[in-house]
Amino acid sequence: MTQELNRRIQKNYHFLLDNLVKSRKIFWTGELSASALSTAVTVSAFSVYLIHSNELDPPLSDIRKQELLKMLTKSVAWIIAHQNKDGGWGDTTRSFSNSSTTMLVKSALTLFQKAIHQEKDLIAESLKQKMTAIFQNEKLMPDFSKIDAYLESQGGIEGIRQRYGKDKTFVVPILTNAAIAEIVSWNEVAPLPFELAAFPHSFFRFLQLPVVSYAIPALVAIGQVRFFHNPGKNPLLRFIRSKAIKPTLIKLQSMQPISGGFLEASPLTAFVMMSLISCGLINHSVVKNALNFLLDSIYEDGSFPIDTNLATWITTLSINAIRSPSSTFNRGSSDSLHYKAETTNLSSLETSDRVSLNHNEPPAKSNELSCCQFDSFTKKEWNNLSDSFENSTFSSNERTILTDSSLLNWLLNCQHQKRHPFTASAPGGWAWTDLSGGVPDADDTPGAILALSKLYPFADKEDKAKIIKAILNGVQWLLKIQNRDGGFPTFCRGWGTLPFDQSSVDLTAHSIRAFVTCFSLLQKEILWEKKSERINPDIKSCFINQQENELNRDDNQKSSLFETFEEKSFKKSCPNNDFSSNKLTDNVNFFEDSVKIRSLITNLNKSVVHGLNYIIRHQHSEGYWLPLWFGNQNETDDLNPYYGTGKVLNALATFQTFSYSQPVSESFVKENRRSNRRKNRTVVDQVFKRFDIHKSLESKLLQSAEKGILWGIQHQNSDGGWGKRSKSEFLQKSSTKTINQPQAEKDNIFPRSSLEETAVMLDGMIPFLTIYEKKRSDCSFSSVDYQTMLSACQKGLNSLCQMIETEEFKEPSPIGFYFAKLWYFEKAYPLVFACSALKTAWETLISSHSKDRK
């Protein structure tokens, strides 16, 4: 690692960190891309509302109608201005055309024309002129023949069905919108069994619903509008569904959040709104609340995003992308520098240690120092590290974020405290947003656990207890939804076979990282006092509190998480003890505490081992992993192996690093084992040992990681990065500069690497440089040597730095998948992903002792 690259990494990290600090108030909200799909569906909903406005009670005023028409005109103008050259529309302004969005746009334009024709007498003269410009100007006029030609080239209605397969979550709403616009027949819309929504949530996993768990509102509303327009021929089914209308509407009303937006998503909310209006329910409270939500969601240019915000997700990513003092200097190899000071600045070290660090000569080898432990280095190697050490003090920006109590309290308050009406999942999880329409999921919950662990060292005593409790709640929530195959689904355990209800490697990898971090936190913070043989009382209260156990209870059953055979036996032998108390009482002894802790750790260990086996089984034969929530439109089948591989490697690196961390001293363990022989012989070992995995699994993990790294090296682009960006993206990014496009094409720079995928791959690969040196004595990499890995990482870091220095982070790529393969881009992604990669590089390659191998 050259000093020049070291300086570039540090400079760009602080540059990105400055941008992160400037882009937040208390937390980060990010900014989601405008969506042609979301805008089109919303235009349809408002148009249907105007068409049926004569059914309103009280009637809609003329002024209100004019306001809605003016807003719709602005939205339609935005849609028409973003039509692609092939006649279709993509989900975002940087997305390729697809049949789904194009069909929705056609439906929206058709309904809009009907609305303005009905209300033409109320349209102001200025608005008439604007509409005339839209529909008569050759550049803006929607060419339906061109739209129809594109749809026909994509297979028409059948092409839309094939895109989504057996998942009817999105294909039925699209065709419903088209049927409401009278573009297609109601016979083309598949009937949805909305009557099944009347069953309790616990039955859903057995009913094999044709939609995913989060789409129950669409199941009810769209199922009812299809039944209204085409009730079918089966008299028994007609009778059952007619009787199910009222109870399912009550269920739908109970699921609508305070904001009015289902999942905080404009498309889903608009689908529900137009469906209810079309079957004569324009005066229903669900419609009124949905209307207000959509009016609040519009952007200034008339477009709509797919969601209100991803505030919780972006905030946790931002926190986790920041260095922390506890990991600024941390290296596990035998020939490296160890720095375990609890302070945040080198100047606060003991004098002897500070002298050793600042000396030009390497320190003498010593087996034990108060804060630092060194092995022997050459003078050249030590001098090469001096600049890095001098610049590695904890910056004010880092301290500002990590010590912000308002940020901590906001994140704690985002944790769901009640059973969710959508998925009926237990409290304890986090959603992607802090708003009322969010649903807890297995990607945001691990992110929040990791972020709280990062904030923990900077919290006061009271906040630390809150953090521990929140983390344990989140861990329990994750443990409860883990599928039998070992993987983690998005929302619910065991819902069925549809994509967003199945396990996925990116969610599983994220959950494993959270579990490992929780395990590590317990290892550090559960302090064993030799005399009293007690756990840290602040931590103990989080385990003993009866409210904690409520998180994993069914209505009449106690959670199995903390209920073990030993605990049951102990209760029988001590019948006078009060185990139902909500407060920590004096009669709660060490044995009870240790059993609960050991039970949690045992469950964590089993879950992690099960998840690791799932990841190994779902690795592609070539070595990559595929994620669920991210894609790349420039890749075959819109897949994104770079994101999936990077995230899995990151999780495997986190697991490997912790599983080989040094335990407490053997004498301490032996002493506690002797003193607790009659109570619980193994509890101290259970708390302080590494994850217990079989040697065969350990070997498989190394082989799996090696295969993934080798795939990453083989698929590194010539510019040093990973992934692909299209010509249009590159040209938009460079729109302020003069580009010789023919020469660029001749030089074969299209497509080029994306910043997001380059950063994610680096975040996963770089930690294995350290792990490689740990493992080479007993199980070395056979196909990838250290020099090859280091060279690939250096090329990637140079490429990433180049992208940052040319401000490419300001132009995000549409790599995000929303529900049902709905593309989006988020302006915060390149900033946060790049900052995280540079942080990892700093901690692993610079702050740690990295030999310059040439």
Give a verbal description of the structure.
This protein has 36 helices and six strands. The radius of gyration is 29 Å and the shape is globular. The chain is an all-alpha fold and 854 residues long. Strands 1-2 form a two-stranded antiparallel sheet.
Mean pLDDT: 76
Overall structural class, as computed from helix and strand content, comes to: mainly alpha
Report the strand count: 6
Strand arrangement within the widest β-sheet reads 1-2
How many angstroms separate the termini? 9 Å
Low-confidence stretches: 326-391, 527-533, 546-591, 660-669, 671-688, 728-749, 849-854
Question: Tell me about the biggest sheet?
Answer: 2 strands, antiparallel
- Radius of gyration, taken over Cα atoms and rounded to an integer in Å: 29 Å
Give the assembly state of these chains.
single chain
Number of helices: 36
Helix content: 40-55%
How much of the polypeptide forms β-strand, as a percent range?
A: under 5%
Based on Cα principal axes, name the global outline: globular
Task: Show the helix and strand layout.
Elements: H1 3-22, E1 34-35, H2 36-51, H3 62-81, H4 99-118, H5 125-136, H6 144-153, H7 156-164, H8 168-180, H9 204-207, H10 216-229, H11 235-255, H12 266-278, H13 285-297, E2 304-305, H14 311-320, H15 325-328, E3 338-339, H16 351-358, E4 372-373, H17 379-390, H18 396-402, H19 405-413, H20 444-455, H21 461-481, H22 505-525, H23 537-544, H24 546-549, H25 565-573, H26 590-617, H27 641-659, H28 666-675, H29 683-688, H30 695-714, H31 727-733, H32 741-746, H33 755-765, H34 767-779, H35 786-805, E5 816-818, E6 822-824, H36 828-846
Antiparallel strand pairs: 1-2, 3-4, 5-6
